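the four lines:
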Amino acid sequence: MKTAKEILEILQKKFPEIEFSLVEDEPSDQIIFTDALKIHEICEFLRDGEGLKFDTLMNLSGVDDANGEKQTNDDGSETIVGGTLSVYYNLDSIELNHKTTLQVSTSRESPKVESVNLIWRAADWHEREAYDMLGIKFLNHPDLRRILMPYDWEEGSYPLRKDYKDPEFYQGMKVPY
Amino acid sequence: MRQYLKNTWEGIWTIIIGMKITFKHLFVPSVTIQYPDQKVPLPERVRNRLYVNMDDCIGCDQCARACPVNCIDIETVKSTPGENLGQTSNGKKKALWVTKFDIDIAKCCYCQLCVFPCPTDCIYMTDVYEFSEFKRNELIYNFSTMQPGEVEEKKDNFEKFQAEKEAQKAAAAKAKAEAAAKAKAEKEKDEKSKNNNSKSSSNDVS
Amino acid sequence: MYESLVEITGLEIFAAFVSAAMPVAFLVPFVIIAVYLERKVSAHMQDRLGPMRVGYHGLLQTIADFFKLIQKEDIVAEGIDKKFFNFAPFLVFAGSYAVYAALPFSSKYIGSETDLGIFYIIAISGLVVAGILMAGWTSNNKYSLYGAMRSAAQIISYEIPTALVILSIIMWTGTMSLATMSEMQTAYFWNWNILGGPEWGITKFVLIPFLLVAFIILYVSTLAEVNRTPFDMPEAESELVAGYHTEYSGMKFAMFFLAEYGNMFAVSAIVSVIFFGGYQSPFGYLGNTLGIEWLVPFEQVFWFAAKGIFFVFVQMWLRWTLPRVRVDQLMTICWKYLIPYSFVNLLVIGIITLL
Amino acid sequence: MALKTEELVLNMGPQHPSTHGVLRLEVQLEGELVTKVTPHLGYLHRCFEKHAEAMTYPQVIPYTDRMDYLASMYNNFGYVIGVEKMLGIQVPERVEYIRIIMGELQRIASHMVALGTYGLDIGAFTPFLYLFRDREKILTLFEITCGARLLYNYMWVGGLSHDLHPDFERLTREFISYFRPNIDELNNLLTYNKIFVERTANIGVLPKETAINYGITGPNLRASGLKYDLRRNDPYSIYDRFDFEIPVGEGLVGTVGDCWDRFYVRVLEMEQSLKIVEQALNQLPEGDINEALPKRVKPPKGSIYQRVENPKGELGYFIISDGTVNPFRVKVRAPSFVNLAILNELSKGHLVADIIAILGSLDIVLGEIDR
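prediction for all of em together
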């Protein structure tokens, strides 16, 4: 059993060049915030490191933080410019029975996060879902396609973004029926 | 070789056991029933078609707000003070004409979330579960008891009342303004006169 | 029947037609009853009611279904070989119907009293394979193709244990004619082949266990030949949707259906002829006791049908009890289990017969 | 000269008798041997996560019902305890017990469907209907309690929609004594049947390490021989008060972690669930169930990951609140979604018929995969 603080200390010792910080909100578990482009190295260490042994990825969720600037378009809809998209990793160690949460953020305009697919195969479909829903590109993912939405869904249209607008037509069918 | 014979024996033996079980079930009375002729008695808490008892509805819109699929559509018109809308069965006084109370039962997800917030228990789920229709529009139930003409009348009434009220208000405001102006004028006048008086007095004095 | 008709009328063609049409008069009502029975048996085994609406307890359901099938649109998908696609169901039905020519329904009626009856049946049922392959291949559907391929492999493989068991019985009884075989097992059930045949003696009791094994082998392999569960690989609905008849609809589908049920009865009848005395009554004949001669053939038809339907019932019973085997296990059962057992059985029965 | 052969691509689904809903599998075949299976999802996508962002917290509950529609109670369970944790609500004892009774009954009902349809996939039709007959009895128990048979909306944040029906306890006890012998009947009819064993033993063997790496949870993981159950390893609600075993796969007829083990673990779990229900009924306290119902569900800013042991595996809700009445983000970690990802790995080198066996043994529900 290790708390987030202890894990953070271990990580800081191991990766002095990467920035870490602890997100503390009232009801939630403590979250370790780190760098999106180094996440695979960190995760690999978390999986294999002595005393950590996070052997499974419980959940990976992409979130639109909606912290950018809101701009109102001509037709009254809103577009968010700037700000970040986040990915949360909920890790679990079956062997040592402890859990932790990691968070990384990436820019909204060109969201790029390193894939952890090769570390936990469980991440495969979760990452595809995050790509599908929020458009987060997972670098080095072997098969980054849409998963829940149709393959021919409009390029650049990601439903779970807060400023998402329904397309008017999909394959000649009116969408808001 | 032993494994071979064992496999053969197990194959035949487990098949015989299975056949024994199914044969026994040939004589077990069936658990299904002939549905439209026979029906399963429904328990009392059963959740099926929504029903609204309009006599008790006060038009508070709480059910519509609780609905996760927005299938309830309520429009209300305020009553004028002279009108008596009666009381609900649990003694609440009605204050709104419910001009529209539509439930699109095709959208309804039977979650019962609308039933609990109702202050007068007038919306509830009944045990009617056979209400298919050929047209989708027929699944939109209009519960409001008011005739279109009546609705118009009430709307007019309210508008008139509103207008009257406005007028009254305006009149009142005007009166007030006038009064205020008057008061002000008077005050000014007073002051003036006072001043004058004082002046005069001063003059007088001087 | 054919010979007697020729004698009476002198018209060979007429005699041939009449005796060929006789089984139809039996087959169609049988299929109607069997389909009803299948649904009712399955329903009651599963604590359900089954069809209840059409007629008393759904008795007329099958007839209603038959009319429904006639009315259905005959869908012919694009990109299929129409000629063979249309021909395949008839070929399958012809294959299964031809078997009826050699079945002795009673001592007075047999379509064709050929001496090679049993081998004729084994040979002619191979025609079904051609029909199924044709249906599967011309459907231009991957599921149909898989179903047809599996079916062909299955039916051909399972003919070997069937033939071996029948061989051992032929060796012992010394006849290939089904009529003669039934005749030998004269009335009363202790004369049936499964109980060692009509001749009393030590061999009768020695043979019983081996004949029982032979019966099981024959029953299992005929089950596989008619593609019934647990060997319904070609139709395996959870894998291949409906196998070789996926693309068929309406009357053509009904032909496959008819052929399947016709086959079911045919193999049950063969089993009953070989082991259970065919048309012979187990308790002697009412006609003989009462002295009414003409009643006997009708009683025989009744017993023949009753035995056949009983084995059809067992097929259904198995179907609603067992899961389906996998395609390679199907072959394992055939080549590694049934064939060695039937060879041993053949040897033992041969030796006993010789002694 | 070598014979020219080519791979056959077989499309299974979206309309196929044994893909358990609208799943499309693109199967590459070498003869009857499978070389690759690609699942295509999304035919049942109903935008749960997007919907949830527009709803208030209590309004999300009916939507959770519709994810794993065979285990609606448990979906409610996971969501409400997640939100309760955010709000810091302690629910009354009676509510906890009732939730566990309902959850475990739901587990039995869900496993019944899993086992029944598995039999159906293998070709045995009859056990399927026997199990559905018994499942109806559980659904009736739910119906007398909350009025619905499939989508309950029964567990609320801070309480329950209804208290138990006065007859509930008696009927549940009757059900338990009625159902116990039926498990044996199922075993005799199907589980130990030679054909069934041959079809499932040594098929789709899932080693423990692979299972963990793929994030497989629930009965599928336990069948691989790992004693891991969130009810024990990360106890939520009051599961730590009950005495029950965690059945694991032992490879009785084949290898540990094969399809038969996955099937048998579920059979054993049903017995354990009956045991839990019995204990909970014995300890059921009296009390008011609506004590802790909050007037307004408005959690403070923050996030939570709440996981529960759904009949299919680990059901997780990752809820982010921005301090308003609507959740900012609800991400569901659906057990079937993660479990299905391993299908390709398991089916390589097996026959077409085995894909069906493997897919059935993973016990997926498309409502949950596509959400």
